[in-house]
Amino acid sequence: MIDKAGLKVAGVLAAFLEERVLPGTGIPTDKFWHGVADIYRRFAPENARLLDVREDMQAKIDAWHEERAGRPVDQDAYETFLREIGYLVAEPASFAIETRNVDTEVARIAGPQLVVPILNARFLLNAANARWGSLYDALYGTDAIPGAPAGDGYDPVRGEQVIDWAKSFLDRAVPLARGSWRDWSGGEPMLADPTHLVGRAGGNLLLRHHGLHIELMIDPAHPIGRNDPAGLADVLLESAITTIADLEDSIAAVDAEDKVAAYSNWLGLMQGTIQASFEKAGRTIVRRLKGDRHYIATDGTELVLPGRSVMFVRNVGHLMTTPALLLPDGRQAPEGILDGICTSLIALHDIAVARRNSRSGSIYIVKPKMHGPAEAAFTNRLFDAIEDLLGLDRHTIKVGLMDEERRTSANLAACIAAVKGRLVFINTGFLDRTGDEMHTSMRAGPMIRKGEMKDSTWIKAYENRNVQIGLACGLSGKAQIGKGMWAAPDRMADMLAQKDAHPRAGASTAWVPSPSAATLHATHYHEIDVFARQGERSGEAVASLSHLLTIPIAPGGNWQPGEVQEELENNAQGILGYVVRWVDQGIGCSKVPDIHDVGLMEDRATLRISSQLIANWLFHGVATPAQAEDALRRMAVKVDAQNRADTRYEPMAGRENQSLAYQAARALIFEGANQFSGYTEPLLHQFRAHKKDIT
Fold first, then answer.
1. Of the candidates 258, 256, 271, which has an alpha carbon nearest to the alpha carbon of residue 347?
2. Of 90, 202, 254, 370, whose CB neighbour count within 10 A is largest?
3. 603 is catalytic
4. Does residue 49 have an active-site annotation?
5. How far, in Å, CA of 68 to CA of 443, rounded?
6. pTM score, two decimals?
7. How far from the centroid of its chain's Cα atoms is residue 404's Cα?
8. What's the pLDDT tens digit per position in 114-171?
9. Among 603, 608, 640, 666, which one carries the catalytic annotation?
10. What number of CA atoms fall less than 13 Å from residue 290's CA on the CB side?
11. Residues tagged in the binding site annotation
């Protein structure tokens, strides 16, 4: 560790910042470190006090439920109690957010949003380059249309299915004045709305609908185009309008080396230099960031469209600390403060140089896991201080507010008010939100089964209130209102059938797990005019707070033994399948087979639900410790079998006392009721750090 203005900084982090990040920013090294030390002096104690407030509130809520054990929740008395302890605050007077200098992609275009682990450079590049995607490829290679390609080469039958689907989509989004795109034989198309045609590039046509672009790739010499009457070789859709590069739930970063690897990839994005190489068919492929796309507009002027997604970065929340930096008293420093400083400093290479990412000169930081308006206000003042350190205008750093904790949901308008000068994003995060629902009310009674949560009273109010409050606070046209992840990347037909509910709800963005999913989900934003839907919903009354605060306790809680075993095994399998990759291999997000061998994108949010549910059932005697232990042992055998093709995989079954991953999964369950806010990070970090030490 190296002394920097009284702080102890890991050598690898200090070298990275001083040698690779600070040069070119105009900020002297000594001034930077003294500024960092001052920020920690001012904000680290308050960070700790806010966490103490959380713990104190949770203890009071636990005691309230314990005093009333066995009795139904008196909703009026419950809400009065929550106000008395400061859990619920007064609603602010009517206001509108005041955010300025927001990129069009964030404020005025509705479309898909990718979330990608920042430690994986290849995935990060794929996501950044997913601004444009081939509709033909997304359809051909997924189950979005029935069947699958036959043989190893091109399947012309499958190809015809793809082309028919794509032209049917064009008929709906940008219809011709007469007939179908299936009959178009080339030349100038006669559109029902001529304003949909906005440009050309060679023989290609550029169309625009609901703010999103469609490029018709005309190439009669192409293997696909030569069999098309118009020479249409592909349909490119503007897809992932924005992307969140994630430092939080989807990565395993437990020390200075991990943090530097993550920050290095963010630096590569901001400088435009990031690249990744991999082997394919016996040759090395190098992937780089794509450039902008150039057209001639219909009025003869040059039209340039971004080639890449606008990048947000998700910092960690207020809880975790990092060994990469020690405070003067020797304690680990709050990691969220370090993320805020470092990701903003790195973003200077974008906004102060070439503006490759944000043409408006903004830095987009998503801040997760905040509990209530006091914590949101803390983030606002922290970002003020970081702007002062870096010489930035006030509110250059924008904030995305994750509505994923119960106290934030219940006080959403007050949370938005606390960051109203820099807010660019709110969303609903069903998974983490469910985990916090369970933990907050751990002692209220046994929770309903995980699969029933989506139909519960609180979640319907939650999803509606988020949009309704966002619109009432003036987000439309200024900031994103988002919805959560589609977690099944191999089930694109189901996604196409279901995920239109998000834009239909008035959400201007929703999360997708892959570039192909982004392209397919983009079709929903052509089918639904999101900003028109927001106008229709803007006058709605806000859904009931009492409904939001209705605890999802199972009435009676009298499950049959088979149902208890099924629920234990389902959750134990999910916990083990995710944790074994996190602890043993440092993989924070991946496609993990569920108990039915369906691949699901898993991160710490899903882990939080499963561990909290079993912990809750153990607490209330729905299941016994022996039953939970038995489920873990049986599911270890299944997870081992699901990973048998992975040469790096370390089996758990029969090695329960030696496997750190197994021990971590067990701890998440049996210590779950007492984990801070029900979070999984402290235990995961502990076991992953131990694993790295011994290997």
1. 271
2. 370
3. yes
4. no
5. 10
6. 0.97
7. 11
8. 999 999 999 999 999 999 999 999 999 999 999 989 988 999 999 999 999 999 999 9
9. 603
10. 19
11. 115, 122-123, 250, 287, 314, 404, 429-432, 513
